[in-house]
Amino acid sequence: MKFFELFDQDEVSCQTYALYLNSIVDVEAYVSLLRQLYPTISTFVFVVCVRLDWTSNNELIVYLGGMDLDIEKGTPVTGNHYAFCTYELGKSKLYYVDTLGYPIPHNLLESIDEIVGSYRNDLAGRVLRADVIMAHDFSGYGNTHSCASSCSIYPFQSCSTVCGPAVLIGTAIAVHNPHLLELLVSTKKD
């Protein structure tokens, strides 16, 4: 593959819809409007605000900020870190990119499936069966991540303050050149 082919785009960005998942309150109304305004979406890019936490049983859990209730306290959870994922309609892969290497939020697939299944009824349940390709495997809390061979070549953030800009750049790549994002997330370190 030649370098310039990675940047060849043929109407890709016109068929991709990026959204901030944490702010959707009424999925049916939101998706109904999407179907009217954008009837040819082929790929969704979901920006998510997450929080990594530990339960009293010392189990790791990743919440969707603003959409989740703490499983022990029942109180709303606010997010403190941004990540994103992409799902091409009808495909069997979901790419999840968290530049701190946090695991996928516990209910993210269900939340995405609700939107995708509402947008196209024939796809209901497919996200739940998707292969999740992670940019980085979780190896510790915060900045203690150390990339292993299972991690991709997608950049890992080395401080805790650049997740917002990193997500903006990653989302732009996902919208304008999904093949480059797939290459970055799928290519593993040797």
Shape: globular
In the CATH hierarchy, the third-tier topology is known as Adenoviral Proteinase, Chain
The percent range for strand residues is: 15-25%
Total strands: the figure is: 6
Q: Keyphrases for this structure?
A:
24% helix; Adenoviral Proteinase, Chain; 190 residues
Write a short abstract of this structure.
The protein is α/β, with parallel strands linked by helices and 190 residues long.
Write the layout of secondary structure elements.
Blueprint lengths: L15 E5 L6 H11 L5 E12 L5 E5 L16 E8 L4 E5 L10 H12 L11 E4 L28 H14 L1 H9 L4
Parallel strand pairs: 1-2, 5-6
Antiparallel strand pairs: 2-3, 2-4, 4-5
Q: Could you explain how this protein is built, in words?
A:
- The chain has one domain: 3-Layer(aba) Sandwich (Adenoviral Proteinase, Chain), CATH 3.40.395.
- 24% of the residues lie in helices and 21% in strands.
- It has four helices and six strands, in the order E-H-E-E-E-E-H-E-H-H.
- Strands 1, 2, 3, 4, 5 and 6 form a six-stranded mixed sheet that branches.
- The radius of gyration is 17 Å and the shape is globular.
